[in-house]
């Protein structure tokens, strides 16, 4: 819907430019007055030409904004080819509807991971296991890519990176895990709190 509106406006602009080139600018005033004429036809307002022209531009701008907001309400995730044509300010004003599909998927994955991490950290606390968890809601102060959980028991250490299903670890996370394994530590990628609990029980011999 938005794309067709934009295409229509672009086609009108192209026609106006062709007319100006063909007739030496004779249609300049007519093209510039187009928003004003549309405004007059829709509202019945008649005033000075400059005022009509200004109100016409404002009117069309508000209509386009209404179209965007209505489309966002009807379809919370707008197509990426539309979102990429909007400014950052316009996208932020749309809230969740201003996110591309990749951004929405990343935000969903982050939410799932935090929820699973919370469940796992509660289990670790209940079992009395000493652990260090990287903060997911703030900029990390440790090495980028370090696993989410470092768990210690009986002189042994287990490192776990938690990723939700279908999410892939970053190259920094993969590098850290490989270096930890090379150094002789147990480092794993788990996909849920349940998987993390089972891995922890197996490694430390818990029941």
Question: How does this model look, in words?
Answer:
With 207 residues, the chain is of the alpha+beta class. Helix content is 59%, strand content 10%. The protein has 9 helices and 4 strands; from the N terminus they run H-H-H-H-H-H-H-E-E-E-H-E-H. The model is unreliable at 23-32 (pLDDT under 50).
Can you write the helix and strand succession as a string? HHHHHHHEEEHEH
Major pleated sheet: 4 strands, mixed
**How many strands in all?**
4
Structural class by secondary-structure content: alpha+beta
Identify low-pLDDT runs: 23-32
Mean pLDDT, all residues: 75
Distance between the termini: 59 Å
Name the CATH architecture of the largest domain: 3-Layer(aba) Sandwich
Oligomerization category of the chains in this entry: single chain
Shape: elongated
**CATH topology-level name of the largest domain:** Trna Endonuclease, Chain: A, domain 1
Short summary:
The protein has 207 residues and is of the alpha+beta class. It folds into two domains: 2-99, no CATH class; 104-204, Trna Endonuclease, Chain: A, domain 1 (3-Layer(aba) Sandwich), CATH 3.40.1350.10.
What secondary-structure arrangement, pairings included, does this model have?
Blueprint (H helix, E strand, L loop, with lengths): L1 H21 L5 H5 L1 H10 L5 H26 L5 H4 L4 H6 L7 H26 L3 E4 L15 E5 L2 E7 L8 H12 L3 E5 L2 H12 L3
Parallel strand pairs: 3-4
Antiparallel strand pairs: 1-2, 2-3
Helix pairs in contact: 3-4, 7-9
């Amino acid at each position: 819907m938005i794309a067709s509106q934009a295409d229509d406006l672009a086609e009108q602009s192209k026609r106006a430019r062709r007319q100006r080139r063909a007739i030496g600018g004779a249609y300049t005033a007519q093209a510039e007055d187009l928003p004003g004429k549309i405004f007059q036809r829709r509202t019945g307002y008649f005033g000075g030409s400059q005022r009509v022209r200004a109100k016409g531009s404002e009117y069309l701008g508000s209509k386009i904004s209404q179209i965007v907001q209505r489309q966002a309400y009807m379809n919370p995730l707008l197509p990426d080819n539309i979102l990429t044509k909007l400014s950052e300010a316009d996208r932020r004003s749309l809230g969740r509807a201003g996110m591309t599909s990749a951004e929405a998927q990343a935000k969903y994955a982050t939410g799932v991971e935090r929820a699973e991490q919370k469940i796992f950290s509660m289990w670790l606390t209940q079992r009395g296991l000493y652990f260090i968890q990287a903060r997911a809601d703030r900029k990390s102060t440790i090495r980028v890519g370090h696993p989410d959980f470092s768990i210690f028991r009986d002189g042994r250490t287990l490192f776990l990176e938690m990723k939700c299903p279908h999410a892939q670890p970053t190259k920094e996370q993969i590098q850290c895990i490989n270096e930890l394994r090379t150094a002789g530590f147990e480092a794993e990628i788990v996909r849920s709190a349940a998987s993390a609990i089972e891995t922890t029980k197996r490694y430390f011999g818990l029941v």
